[in-house]
Amino acid sequence: MIKVSLILPSLNVKKYIRKCVMSAQEQTLKDLEILCIDAGSDDGTWEILKKLAAKDERIRLIRSEMKSYGYQVNLGLRLARGDYIGILETDDFVEPQMYETLYEAVVRERLDVVKAGFYFHSSRKGQEEDRKRMAFEALRPAGYKEVIEDPAHLYALFPEDSMIWTGLYRRQFLLSRQIRCSETPGAAFQDIGFVLQTLYLAQRVMYLPECFYHYRIDRKEASVYSIRVLSYCHVEFSRSRQILLACGVDDLRGYYIRLAGAFLHEYKKVLRAVKYNTEDPILTETMEWFWETLSEGMEDGWIREEDLRGNAWEEISLFVRDRTAFGEQMKRLRSKAPSIERGAIEC
């Protein structure tokens, strides 16, 4: 019996793919399948996958006809045979006990979703290191390992639970609620809708305090470093809202918490990349949508000061009130957001 299906979407990750797949092979939970779904790699990734698959019958090699992270994940969902689904990004890797620990919890507590913490991982001067441990601080200290029923109204989760890859999902739950990733080209933010839908539609969720997943943050080819991140956010958040409304969701507070945080974070990154030119088309092309949507969220009471962190309330309020003043303030602050370059990937 296949207990867990791991979905590994890949595209030109030759440098990382072996370590990633081997971390899946070395899981203490042996009753799993490893779905390696490649979108036409031409750097040697596919050849490495073939060699690994020849020695492990649990590995299934699948060619994706689209260069789309979301399409690859969705293809894996359609082909999966396990009772539970895990998603492992192929420039990352996991600890050996991750999926056994998650599986035991999800079965014991009859959960739709279980998640654990993760590490920010990077390489410096040839040395692999975990620079920061990240878990779900909103649940400290008593909320860990407690079953959360109807997580959509635990608003403190929304700014923290934005990762598709830290957990296990009951496959029948995903199928019955038709939860999927966006299938837009590339690999940028296509899991936003997936994560929001699971938070809104799951009935039983649990978070574990342990960290098992190593999330690589120093790969400059990654979609989070694209100069067009605001455009991708616009597309994915717009789509996600339509899906939530179609599912009958009438409380959009969690959605707006995620949107406000994502907008501020990505705006600051892009502003730095365009040398603080607030009139650069890369910034202005999506401003009308963000302004209209965030203004609506404030008017309808979905965006509240108590839900936002740090200076986010003041910054969102200023953006809604005066976009020009907001841009000028961001210039004066010279944001410390992670840097991207003007010539960054356009995927």
Tags for this entry?
Spore Coat Polysaccharide Biosynthesis Protein SpsA, Chain A; ten-stranded mixed β-sheet; 12 helices; alpha/beta; 39% helix; single chain; 2 domains; 18% strand; 347 residues
Can you walk through the features of this model?
With 347 residues, this protein is an alpha/beta fold. It is built from twelve helices and ten strands. Strands 1, 2, 3, 4, 5, 6, 7, 8, 9 and 10 form a ten-stranded mixed sheet that branches. Strand 6 and strand 7 form a beta hairpin. The radius of gyration is 20 Å and the shape is globular.
Brief description of this entry?
The protein is of the alpha/beta class. Helices cover 39% and strands 18% of the residues. It folds into two domains: 4-225, Spore Coat Polysaccharide Biosynthesis Protein SpsA, Chain A, CATH 3.90.550.10; 229-333, no CATH class.
Number of helices: 12
- Structural class designation: alpha/beta
Proportion in β-strands = 15-25%
Number of strands: 10
Low-confidence stretches: 341-347
Mean pLDDT score? 89
Largest sheet: 10 strands, mixed
- Tell me the name of the CATH homologous superfamily of the largest domain: Spore Coat Polysaccharide Biosynthesis Protein SpsA, Chain A
Radius of gyration: 20 Å
- CATH level-3 fold name of the largest domain: Spore Coat Polysaccharide Biosynthesis Protein SpsA, Chain A
**What share of the residues lie within helices?**
25-40%
Shape: globular
CATH class bucket of the largest domain: Alpha Beta
Distance between the termini: 38 Å
Q: Which architecture of the largest domain does the CATH hierarchy give at level 2?
A: Alpha-Beta Complex
